[in-house]
Amino acid sequence: MKITDLRPMMTTEDLPGTIDFYTNILGFSCGEFNEDWGWATLWIDDTAIMIARPNEHVAYDKIGFTGTFYFTTDDVDSMWTKVKDKARVCYGIENFEYGMREFAIYDNNGYVLQFGQEISE
Questions:
Q1: Rounded Cα distance, 102 and 79, in Å
Q2: Structural domains of the chain, ranges and CATH numbers in brackets
Protein backbone atom coordinates (compact mmCIF):
# COMPACT_ATOMS: atom_id res chain seq x y z
CA MET A 1 0.00 0.00 0.00
CA LYS A 2 1.19 3.50 -0.83
CA ILE A 3 -0.36 6.86 0.09
CA THR A 4 0.01 9.07 -2.96
CA ASP A 5 -1.37 12.42 -1.87
CA LEU A 6 -2.64 14.50 1.04
CA ARG A 7 -5.39 16.96 0.21
CA PRO A 8 -6.76 18.85 3.23
CA MET A 9 -10.51 19.53 3.32
CA MET A 10 -11.11 22.91 4.96
CA THR A 11 -14.55 23.94 6.17
CA THR A 12 -15.84 27.39 5.28
CA GLU A 13 -19.08 29.25 5.76
CA ASP A 14 -18.11 31.57 2.89
CA LEU A 15 -17.32 29.42 -0.14
CA PRO A 16 -17.16 32.32 -2.66
CA GLY A 17 -15.01 34.42 -0.30
CA THR A 18 -12.62 31.52 0.30
CA ILE A 19 -12.29 30.80 -3.41
CA ASP A 20 -11.60 34.51 -3.93
CA PHE A 21 -8.94 34.61 -1.16
CA TYR A 22 -7.03 31.59 -2.44
CA THR A 23 -7.25 32.50 -6.13
CA ASN A 24 -6.77 36.29 -6.02
CA ILE A 25 -4.39 36.63 -3.07
CA LEU A 26 -2.42 33.37 -3.08
CA GLY A 27 -2.54 32.53 -6.79
CA PHE A 28 -4.42 29.21 -6.64
CA SER A 29 -6.74 28.24 -9.48
CA CYS A 30 -10.19 26.78 -8.94
CA GLY A 31 -10.02 23.36 -10.59
CA GLU A 32 -13.43 22.06 -9.60
CA PHE A 33 -16.47 23.78 -8.13
CA ASN A 34 -19.92 22.42 -7.32
CA GLU A 35 -22.35 24.94 -5.83
CA ASP A 36 -24.94 22.24 -5.08
CA TRP A 37 -22.43 20.26 -3.02
CA GLY A 38 -20.93 23.43 -1.52
CA TRP A 39 -17.46 22.23 -2.46
CA ALA A 40 -14.40 23.20 -4.51
CA THR A 41 -10.86 22.04 -5.20
CA LEU A 42 -8.15 24.69 -5.46
CA TRP A 43 -4.75 24.08 -7.06
CA ILE A 44 -1.38 25.76 -7.04
CA ASP A 45 1.38 23.94 -8.92
CA ASP A 46 1.14 20.28 -7.74
CA THR A 47 -0.63 21.10 -4.48
CA ALA A 48 -4.39 20.98 -3.93
CA ILE A 49 -6.75 21.83 -1.10
CA MET A 50 -10.47 21.23 -0.94
CA ILE A 51 -12.93 23.60 0.66
CA ALA A 52 -16.49 22.81 1.63
CA ARG A 53 -19.45 24.28 3.42
CA PRO A 54 -20.52 22.48 6.60
CA ASN A 55 -22.60 19.41 5.76
CA GLU A 56 -24.30 16.46 7.43
CA HIS A 57 -21.27 14.15 7.07
CA VAL A 58 -19.08 15.87 9.65
CA ALA A 59 -20.13 17.28 13.00
CA TYR A 60 -19.85 21.06 12.84
CA ASP A 61 -19.89 23.67 15.57
CA LYS A 62 -17.65 26.40 14.15
CA ILE A 63 -14.64 26.98 11.94
CA GLY A 64 -11.56 25.69 13.67
CA PHE A 65 -8.35 23.74 13.33
CA THR A 66 -5.77 23.26 16.06
CA GLY A 67 -2.80 23.20 13.70
CA THR A 68 -1.53 25.14 10.73
CA PHE A 69 -1.22 24.44 7.02
CA TYR A 70 2.45 24.56 6.04
CA PHE A 71 3.36 25.19 2.39
CA THR A 72 6.94 24.63 1.27
CA THR A 73 8.02 26.93 -1.55
CA ASP A 74 11.14 27.55 -3.58
CA ASP A 75 10.85 31.35 -3.25
CA VAL A 76 9.39 32.35 0.11
CA ASP A 77 10.47 35.97 -0.28
CA SER A 78 8.41 36.39 -3.46
CA MET A 79 5.39 34.82 -1.76
CA TRP A 80 5.84 37.16 1.22
CA THR A 81 6.00 40.21 -1.07
CA LYS A 82 2.89 39.01 -2.88
CA VAL A 83 0.67 38.51 0.21
CA LYS A 84 1.99 40.62 3.11
CA ASP A 85 -0.23 43.62 2.36
CA LYS A 86 -3.29 41.58 1.28
CA ALA A 87 -3.74 39.20 4.23
CA ARG A 88 -3.67 39.43 8.01
CA VAL A 89 -0.13 38.53 9.09
CA CYS A 90 0.39 36.02 11.90
CA TYR A 91 4.17 36.56 11.92
CA GLY A 92 6.45 38.21 9.41
CA ILE A 93 9.19 36.63 7.36
CA GLU A 94 12.27 35.55 9.26
CA ASN A 95 15.01 32.93 9.38
CA PHE A 96 14.73 30.23 12.01
CA GLU A 97 17.51 28.23 13.67
CA TYR A 98 16.01 24.98 12.33
CA GLY A 99 16.99 25.99 8.79
CA MET A 100 13.79 27.50 7.43
CA ARG A 101 12.91 31.00 6.25
CA GLU A 102 9.19 31.41 6.75
CA PHE A 103 6.16 33.55 7.55
CA ALA A 104 2.52 32.94 8.40
CA ILE A 105 -0.78 34.60 7.50
CA TYR A 106 -4.44 34.00 8.28
CA ASP A 107 -6.85 33.15 5.50
CA ASN A 108 -10.34 34.66 5.36
CA ASN A 109 -11.67 31.90 7.67
CA GLY A 110 -8.97 32.32 10.31
CA TYR A 111 -6.88 29.28 9.33
CA VAL A 112 -3.13 29.82 9.79
CA LEU A 113 -1.13 29.34 6.59
CA GLN A 114 2.65 29.08 6.91
CA PHE A 115 5.01 29.39 3.97
CA GLY A 116 8.61 28.25 4.26
CA GLN A 117 11.78 27.65 2.33
CA GLU A 118 14.81 25.66 3.43
CA ILE A 119 17.90 27.82 3.88
CA SER A 120 21.55 27.14 4.58
CA GLU A 121 23.38 29.45 6.89
A1: 10
A2: 1-54 (3.10.180.10), 68-121 (3.10.180.10)
